[in-house]
Amino acid sequence: MAVVCALTITFSYGQSIVYTPASDLTLVGKILPTQQVYHRVDTTDHPLMPPAVKRRLTNSAGLAIAFKTNSTVIAAKWCTSSRKTLPNMTAIAHEGLDLYIKNDGRWQFAGVGRPKGDCTAYTLVQNMEEGEKECLLYLPLYDETVSLEIGVEEGSSLQAMKDPFEKRILMYGSSILQGASASRPGMAYPARLSRDTGINFLNLGLSGSAKMEKAVADMIVTVKADAFVLDCVPNSSPEEIRERTAYLVNTIRQHHPLAPIIVIPRTVREHGAFDEEVGNWVKAQNEQIELEVSKLLRSGVKDLYLLSYDKQLGDDHEGTIDGGHPNDLGFDRMLQQLKPQLLKILRKYELTPTKGL
Amino acid sequence: MAVVCALTITFSYGQSIVYTPASDLTLVGKILPTQQVYHRVDTTDHPLMPPAVKRRLTNSAGLAIAFKTNSTVIAAKWCTSSRKTLPNMTAIAHEGLDLYIKNDGRWQFAGVGRPKGDCTAYTLVQNMEEGEKECLLYLPLYDETVSLEIGVEEGSSLQAMKDPFEKRILMYGSSILQGASASRPGMAYPARLSRDTGINFLNLGLSGSAKMEKAVADMIVTVKADAFVLDCVPNSSPEEIRERTAYLVNTIRQHHPLAPIIVIPRTVREHGAFDEEVGNWVKAQNEQIELEVSKLLRSGVKDLYLLSYDKQLGDDHEGTIDGGHPNDLGFDRMLQQLKPQLLKILRKYELTPTKGL
């Protein structure tokens, strides 16, 4: 891999910082090829999808830049759209950056890019030891990343590196999957799964819009993936679950005959403990998905799995920011339950990293 | 307790909602009497405190409203200052509301007030069972609460209730104590401690400004408290820790001869693993506070405790939003270590609830 071209030089804290377009480096987590490099899916290729889905697909959730550098400083300049941060998210998660550096063989948090409006220049980390570092920079979860440049010290190296993750597991789901309400982009649950396992979990979280529409199912099956995880319960009405689950599962099976399809069978709305309408709605959603998957299994669909997810976000009801969206504590409890089950299935299909876990 | 006067009636979702000023109900977590009811300390009484400290004392961190109602809906109308939400916080935590309802003897999350600008009307929870509920509504952590009204169904009861927490433990510290970066007001760590233990932990978190200045120490000792917890390491330089810890501790001891003084001895900055300057700074802060407390203990100060806090925010480096501020996962890990130690000390002084824990 060649050292990429430096485009701009600016000065930060007395150091000369050289900026390089992130698109010259390695883009991790990409679902389908797109014209705008930080979109997840090119919506012009799938015109029948609902407008809300198309808008979500411009969000850079799950995308990250992988690179190596021997710089002691890492900075970034980036622009997002003018979309305002939602009240149940931090601006860092919504439109900021999140940097990890490999340390003793593990990805370790190193710094965030705090947004200061739609365009920001920020030093993510500085005063580091000399020597080469492997870096992974997560992009905004809930905004469109319009441009991104990565800055290193003048005279230091900056190189694309091999995608650190193996295989491709497409995760299709709601805001919870997209990253609401993780505190920063790297805390979205597919990102945590990837770092923990070395497997490439692709984030097709569509906030409020994971409703299993036919046009979305038809787009999903064009994705080159080794397995499919469906986390669509939160956004789909019991009726939609009843009407649409079979088409989604059968269409994936038809186009990907050997890929396991793994369903996350429940959602949680903590305020549903008091709001009886919400409680009944969630109960009906959860019962309906179990029913649909059971029917599909009985009809002979192979390699289809329904995960067990009983304890959900813990038993103290503190695992969400607003009842419906896990906070980092809720996500941690969720992964403690789901990760071992996911890995057990993926291992069976030889979809875990060659080095083992 | 009399049913308080209804002031305004509006209509929400077809229901008639009657609003009552929250100041007519029970204010929980109050540190000192103030003219503006949702300030924590009246800064005109302590003119020598630094301007930044005075500004923080107008934030309603740690304050909550306790009330009983048989309404099936709870709504709120509130106004905050024009201060913008920080990028490392959610707007719900910064300027929103957080409602808990007693369920089987425990405080349980019931709903949030999502801010929509400086003034908001919002239904926190609805469709509840009939019957009386005990409620605790947390106020914004990082903004001034200018006004607050609580709404219930017309014809339902709304009453002040007894403060649910016993004793008074003053916690003085930084942004971490004030609540950065909990996902919502009720997840600030003193609030979690109060709900978990039944003890009244008072939030004197002063974001960026817990520097143990003499004028602040002189204000602190005027607070009627049964114990003092000091979590000032994050904001104080090693030099300030060296120069100011003794005055703070000795002045508390002089004015509160029997109150235990409990020091949280460390702070964490996860990016300090890579940023050597930050890493060295934090190491120096943590060493200095241990040194100062050891000196005070050797000089004969009684009832002074230094907590043990080694594992800090866990070992995966995922417990913060930005390196310095815990996310809800980090706070949970922090409490798992600190809570048993705090309770052990408070039990010794008979400062745990009469019902026991």
Automatic annotation (TrEMBL), chains A, B:
Q: Which Pfam families match?
A: GxDLY, Lipase_GDSL_3
Tell me if Nucleotide-binding is a UniProt keyword of this record.
no
SUPFAM superfamilies documented for this protein? SGNH hydrolase
Mention one GO molecular function.
hydrolase activity, acting on ester bonds
* Keyword Protein biosynthesis found: no
Q: Where is the SGNH hydrolase-type esterase N-terminal domain?
A: 19-157
Q: Which UniProt keywords apply?
A: Hydrolase
SGNH hydrolase-type esterase domain: which residues?
166-341
InterPro entries per the UniProt record, alphabetical: Ester_Hydrolysis_Enzymes (IPR051532), GxDLY (IPR032740), SGNH_hydro (IPR013830), SGNH_hydro_sf (IPR036514)
User: What PANTHER family does the record tag this protein with?
Assistant: SGNH HYDROLASE-TYPE ESTERASE DOMAIN-CONTAINING PROTEIN, THIOESTERASE 1/PROTEASE 1/LYSOPHOSPHOLIPASE L1
Name-wise, this protein is Hydrolase
What species is this protein from? Pontibacter korlensis
